[in-house]
Amino acid sequence: MTYTYPPEEYARQLEVYNELEKLSFSPEDSREYILSKLVERSTKKRVMADIANCCVREYIETFEKDPEAMTAEDAEKLSAFYNALHQRGVIVPENTDYAIMLRIQQILKRYYERTGDVNEAVSALCLADFNYLSLFAIHSNSYGESVYAEEILKLKDIYEDLPPYQRMRVLTSFTRLNLVSDGCVSSGGFSLERCWSILDATRELTEKSRSLRAVEPPEAWEGIPEGFEDIVWQHAMLRVLEMFYRIGEYEKNRGRALDLAAVRPHLQPILDELRSARENGQLKLSGKNLCMGHLAMFLSQYFLENMPWETFLEGLDTIRQEALSLKDQDSLAVLAIIDNVYMRYNWMFSGHGSEKIAQLCRSRLDEALPRVLRFARQINNAKFNNIPLDYVTAASYTSRFSDFAGTVLDLTIYSDKALFIHTAMVREMSRAIFDWMIVHTPEAFDGVAGYDAEYIRTHKDDMRALLDDCSMYHDLGKFWMIDLTENSLRRLTDDEFKIIKEHPQRFEDVYAHLDEDDERFMCIHDCALTHHLWHDGTRGYPNVPQTKNRPFADILAVADSIDAATDFLGRPYNSGKTIDQLIEEFRAGAGTHYGPAACDALSVPEVRDKLEYLITEGRREIYYRIYAYNKL
Question: Do 352 and 392 touch, CB atoms closer than 8 A?
């Protein structure tokens, strides 16, 4: 196989791309200068995207279509491609292209299975599992467990036949088998019985590993740290504790209780062993991992012992003090989780929460926000996604949506300027459509937010303000996938697109506990949930019933599509369609894909002219304002 670029070129382009993403300006910079640099960045991204897509096509798609075509030399080059990505570290090493790395290991796994190289096939399986988990468990609420789980469990049968390094990979993979998403916990898709069986298998392998290490020559274990088995085993126990307290939280949140008599014989020995290791200084974790380990032990103990609320707060405060001593980003990440715990658990205890704890949580939110914003655009990776997200979720437990919505926008504008600009563009385009419709076809909005036609006709500004809110919060679910939505360097993989399709549902995941009697909030909720669902409900996502708020969702769907098809500054892979080309497409989809009333408005000259301005000069102005002033 002849390749256009060496395997390291893709990784090099990613390095450059991330540097471009860190562009920053100030109000002292002129409009012309800022826009020229953004255009320059867009042009560079287009060139880089061509290189990246070429690498993906030659190194990956070739062998996905024809696995038999791969030679040993091709496999070596593909491994070099993987290593270049794996070793890459822009700011933090977690900023990794998991989707591409997963595809590489899937190809190598098939190749080594075909050639009969068991050791390399095992390595590829374990690495595929790691990247699958890193892609789906972090970003997707539909993640249940790894698609490789059963294959990994079968490795127990050949464990003793593997060399030490492969055994290390297998052991590590076993510790990850108890990692699942919150969605899987809430759906009952993973049981504690499954945890116990996986833990028993991990215990068996760690004991085998210790025995083999004692009789095999030391050189065979070169590069594998002494006590590696202890680290693996402690991580495995903590994974089980994490699963236990997450299930316990879910059950208590719904007024149910775990069967502690059935759980205690499995769980108490784990807690006792970890507590003893901590007291004797034998807990092999450090830094953020140690703090999160203490949190897992404490929360499990809380559910096991049903401790009073006051004792719970004292223990949580102790762990919070520990988190404050960590280095800046690690401290911020752990504090976000702990502050989230304060608010979620207080809500479980006290209905919608006591005002005293709510005030404490709000003050911690105010204290943390500047630190979150400082890191936001410096670190764009999966692990950072959860920091603003945890604070957004935490804020949702302190008050009504309207009370903390401004915090959400502050986090968005710093965490992901591309997302904020998109929502601002959708707002402006939605206004252009709404302003004509509310005058000429106000009956189209009858029932929105529970309002009748008479109220809507006499409260145009109020309805416009509600549509503004629907626009600004419709893509909030993308907080879970900031690092994926920013990936305009190359075409999204099928796996990434599958994950991104979950973002409408994610709004509901955050705010499911809020008061559904608030009609205005439910309008925002419905627009976030259904803006990618076709008007006639036959296609799109997610597959949910239509609501009385569909007229607003129809406007958002049109505005969302216009921005996606015309953004020449933020989406350099766009050819940039004209407004007239798009109007023809909307006409063709009216009544099926798009709402006919919203589509009819597009053909009105004043609406069409406003939209044409917005996708050209208006877009430049919004980009300038956001990059220069961090506000509209």
Answer: no
